[in-house]
Amino acid sequence: MKIIKAEKVTFEYIRRDEEGNVEGINRAVDNVSLDVKEGDFISILGANGSGKSTFAKHLNSILLPTEGTVWVDGMDTKDEEKINKIRQTAGMVFQNPDNQIIGQVVDEDVAFGPENMGIPTEEIKERVEEALKTVGMYEFIKRSPNSLSGGQKQRVSIAGVLAMHPKCIVLDEPTAMLDPTGRKEVIRALRALNEVEGITIILITHYMEETVYSDKIFVMHKGSIAMEGTPREVFSRVDELKEYKLEVPQITLLAHTLRQRGLRIPECVLTVKELTDAIKNC
Ligand code: ADP
Ligand code: MG
User: Fold this and answer.
1) Does residue 1 carry a pLDDT above 80?
2) Per-residue model confidence (pLDDT) at position 249
3) How many angstroms separate the alpha carbon of residue 76 from the centre of ligand 2?
4) Which of 89, 264, 265, 276 could potentially form a cystine with 259 if both were Cys, beta carbons 3.0 to 4.6 Å apart?
5) Is the pLDDT at 198 greater than 80, yes or no?
6) Helices (H), 143-270
7) Contact 5, 70 (CB under 8 A)
8) Furthest CA-CA distance within the chain
9) Rounded CA gap, 218 and 238, in Å?
10) What is the atom index within ligand 1 of the atom nearest the CA of 223?
């Protein structure tokens, strides 16, 4: 079953002058087709302005395609009657945790989504506790979100989406404003959600390191999908990535350099463990 299916999706931002005349058209997404299987961890990479955020906003009906169709769990995102169900199926997490936190206390904040869905109070309490445990934030349940670090706030935002019991979570650069510790916390939480809870993850990022555990990576360039494949397939194409203003993960680059210096190291190393194992076997 495909949880997300995009078919020939194009999106154009139309610029108008004060009188409403069209001044210009910016094609931000250009004929994108992609499928995401339920339970997969997908990453979308791409330089600034390549269309990642515009595409992501199509996955829960924030934007509708100018051309083409997006289906979320079989529902056409243009179907107005399904909009609540679509947003509940594919939850979104954005870059800035401060803009996403509404409640004065962590539990109130996480309860916001299920409350809007009309879930009974007793069940909301259970969902909030379960969601906070899943992201490792349960001990902060009665804290003020303002007192938390960036990584903790972002995990609370993720819990808020989780409490709506989505099948899929789309995260648009959730770690861009975090320090390295916060980034690791968030990525670890996402991997657990995917591996333990089976939730489909669509992670948009420009940190290559965050994508090495993905089932599949899509690279966007000028609104189109320029590359797709497993991390090993994508990161072995170093020169092509450079064309799209992207680099391979640092560990992959280090391994590549060591290999050039004559060490017997495999072609595309993705993790520190793979590299240390390879060096031990040299
Ligand atoms: P990314 O998330 O990969 O940085 P975006 O989807 O934000 O890319 O942007 C893709 C293109 O669309 C860029 O050229 C950007 O300038 C343009 N764009 C983004 N948002 C708007 C908007 N609200 N109005 C007009 N153009 C926009
Ligand atoms: Mg963006």
Assistant:
1) no
2) 86
3) 23
4) 265
5) yes
6) 150-162, 180-197, 231-235, 238-243, 250-260
7) yes
8) 70
9) 15
10) 10
Taking the CA of residue 57 as reference, the ligand 1 atom at the shortest distance is 6
HSE, CB side, 13 Å, CA atoms: give it for residue 144. 3
Give the ligand whose atoms come closest to the C-alpha of residue 246: 1
Identify the residue whose C-alpha is closest to ligand 1 atom 25: 13
Q: Which domains does the chain have, with CATH numbers?
A: 2-246 (3.40.50.300), 249-282 (no CATH)
Write down the H helix ranges in 135-179.
150-162
Q: Is the distance from CB of 47 to CB of 246 less than 8 angstroms? A: yes
Q: How far apart are CA 57 and CA 172, in angstroms?
A: 9
- Residue 84 identity (one-letter amino acid): N
pTM > 0.85: yes or no: yes
> For ligand 1, what atom is nearest to the CA of residue 48?
4
Residue carrying structure tokens 């990453």? 43
In eight-state DSSP terms, residue 71 is E
| Measured distance CA(22)–CA(16) in Å, rounded | 4
Residue 257's pLDDT is what? 87
Q: Rounded to an integer, what distance in angstroms lies between the CA atom of residue 35 and that of residue 4?
A: 6
Beta 75-76 vs 90-93: how paired, if at all? unpaired
Q: How large is the angle between the packed helices 250-260 and 272-280, nearest 10 degrees?
A: 20
In short, whether 23's Cβ falls inside 6 Å of ligand 1 is: no
The residue whose two tokens read 């210009």 is: 24
d(CA 164, CA 123): 11
For residue 76, list its beta bridge partners: 71
**Contact call for residues 129 and 138 (beta carbons, < 8 A):** yes
Locus of tokens 């935002």: 157
